[in-house]
Amino acid sequence: MGYLVKDSWQRSPYWQAVYFSNGRKIRKSTKCTDKQKARAVLHGFEAAEMLAATASVTEQQIRHVMSETIARVTGRALHDPTVSEHLAGWLKSERETVSESTIRRYSQIARDFESFLGATRHARLDALSKDIFLAFRDKLRADGCSPRSVNQTLKILRRPFKLAFDEGLIQHNPIAAIKRLRGSAAEKGIFTPQEIGRLLDAAPNAEWRLLIALGYFTGARLMDLSKLTWNAIDRQGQTIAFRQKKTGGALLIPIHRELRPYLSKVPTGIGRAPLLPSLADKSGAGKSGLSMRFRKIMAVAGIEAGVARERDGERGRSVSRLSFHSLRHSFTSELARHGVPPEVRRELTGHRDDSSHRTYTHLEIDVLRRAISAVPSLQS
After folding, report:
1. Parallel, antiparallel or unpaired: strands 319-320 and 307-309
2. Residue ranges making up the domain that contains 101
3. Residues 343, 247: one domain?
4. In this predicted model, what pLDDT tens digit does every residue of 251-292 receive, in sequence order?
5. Strand pairing of 319-320 and 250-254?
6. CA-closest candidate to residue 228, choices 212, 211, 205, 213
7. Number of domains observed in the structure of the chain
8. CATH code of 138's domain
């Protein structure tokens, strides 16, 4: 029969459980200062030891006993999900924080990992070891994924297992020690003001000219700009305000003086009417997407897309040196070239954590206006 004792040296405030197993005396801390709860933990220890001595005992039976003990002591049931259950819970929690396209990507990675695990996906989280993640990484490479793609996949997969570690569901995070594969970074290019002028001349209509001008004079992403509505435009305050699809972060960007004529060339709308009605319902990717259509405008303008990174692996892809996203790089580069401080550049491009959102003051708007004016004129 077990019993409870306190540390005679008073080194710990917790009751200690003393009980016997196969003739050996075992002494463990109950992590309880309340004697009644400590006694419940002691009985749990003893019940688990008795089960362990039974030849036909299963791990599930022992965990059931410990789960009941935890429920009696804390009032809460033991949360011990399988790998599959934890990934499903993680995806559910992420839905409120990231875009739908990001959730689709996360879900695909989770499905691929579960498919690789096979029956192990129904095991407890601590059944996964570093070797399993290394084997998954090796399979991705064998399937033709580039080092960059593999690194991105593992970066996303680290999120649910860091969450499991933070919540105490696992004692160590087996994927945390996996190092990145070496790979060449894509060196994206920028457009010169002269090339921007050629792109504007090659644009097929006023909406495309406005979209290109917005890209250069705001540095915003393609899909954020194509989905802008008229309530984002403050003509009196001369600002554009919207929430980024990728991060959910709010942006407020002063309207550059040379952007105003392009805004005036499209039919004015009100409220949630799209700023670019013929482009707002188009996707960014695909053969008929906005990215490909912009590439065709580049060809008309006599601007080569170039190659920033060659395809690496069967499932890898080549990356163009110039694309619509290069307008964002051009915007940022011009700000840097004209001495705009990094923190102001981050403010304008949205390269910051959502937690840093704050209300703009008039002084801050003036700082941003001066920064925007640093983007050089397209007029020669």
Report:
1. antiparallel
2. 83-166
3. yes
4. 899 999 999 999 999 999 999 999 999 999 999 888 889 999
5. unpaired
6. 211
7. 3
8. 1.10.150
